[in-house]
Amino acid sequence: MKTGGLSLDQAPPLSIPTSFFLTIPLGILIAAGILLANGTMALSSPWVSQTLALAHAGTLGVLAMAMVGALYQMTPVIAGTPVPFTRIAHLVHGLFLAGLAGFIWRLLGGPVAAMSWAIISFELALVAFLLPLGWALLRPATHNETVQGMRLALLSLAAIALIGLLMARGYAGDTFAQNRVLWTQIHLTLALLGWVGGLIMSVSWQVIPMFYLSPVVNRTAKRWLLGLLTLGLILPFAVLFVGLEAGKLLSPGNIAAISALPAALVIWVLHPALMLQNIARRKRKRSDASLLFWQAGLGTALLLSPSAIAALLLPDPRWQVLFGWLAIWGWAALIIHGMLSRIVPFLVWFHRYSARVGLEPVPSMRSLLSQRRIRVGFFLHISSVVLGVMAILLQTDLLAQITGLLLVATAISLGSMLTHTLKR
Amino acid sequence: MVKSVSDNFAVLGSRTPEIVDLRDLEAPGPMEKVLLACSQLDEGEFFLAHVPHVPVLLFPHLESRGLRWWVHEEADQSALLLVRRES
Fold it and tell me: Which ipTM score applies to this complex?
């Protein structure tokens, strides 16, 4: 039995997660600008600078921005240990934005110095973020599978940041690392499956039962999923030692991709199938627009394995771009958009109203954000995913630019949803 | 599931307050219900609820209102929460 021994005042100030969340629309607008200015050039091959810029506007400007903000919020609550020096989060945020600006500018033709600036900014941001978060997650008061998943995600972030920053030196006047394709594959695997997938999976174990009353995933299943995921994240590194010699039939990059199969199976097949089933079995089937994002995102996850196989086996680079588009803007961003539309009203209600419950009348959490507003955001987001798929497959500038316009509309909708809720 | 309430909460002694089941409420419903119920407790009175999970975010509110709490996590990750207004 636990009594008053848990650390209290666990939640960080509202301004910390929300400052990160509020700049997500900016990341979407950058992606939109790249599509509007470059059309299909940004959707033609993963090795084109404009495509790299588009992908990183999504991963750094949208996904990482949400995930870093969410980690500051969730770590003390879920792990039961406060994050030390929480106020540094504002510095991390600023450095992250500066890094993003320099990185995208350089990839779109800016000076070499822009990438050097980006590298320094990201390095400082990552150290200031990873050390306090790592410290809190390594000595949690509560040991559960979500904490383990968060640790795995953080470790993956550290690894992808290291690899990514080394590769970024190729754009900062240095030479690209040897075996660039192999390192890119490992960077991609750890980023999508370890960092993004690990965090989405472990957090969904908490938030889906909490917000939608779905059945709880049992501990044995969680441990198997985490074990398989870890295996699939470690195996690609084995390629570095044995694969380069053995790689006669397949390239080392392909061997690395194939060796991540256990992780891909967990993140893009088992976990989404399990969560979709649990959502269908929830206790009260109350209409909730934020659930549409979860269902669409998890549904898109199920398309990622065949899409990855096509990207791996077919020579046309459009399949690789399609995979990236579905993974970043389909699966991960849809889920994050949905989480924001549920978690931000919850945080506002918690920080502003919960202390007054029972003492005076307070608004309900649901009244802080209309379902209609969430549905509009969903419609815009899912339309941009579908239009983007068509633009990639058909390589039509007009479709790419319409996708860009839909991204602008999604950014405006998300930005207005966030500001409207935060003003309540 | 639950052995018996008094096994989990020795502080109750022979008292057996009714368990209010809040597991079918989505967040922040359980927090809201507990705070509402506890605002009506008299000194020394208990409130006992079965909540969907250990309500970490609720604890600071209980303490700031002069309420003492005990929690017991069940195997299914739900939790029994006992609250008493201190005399």
Answer: 0.84
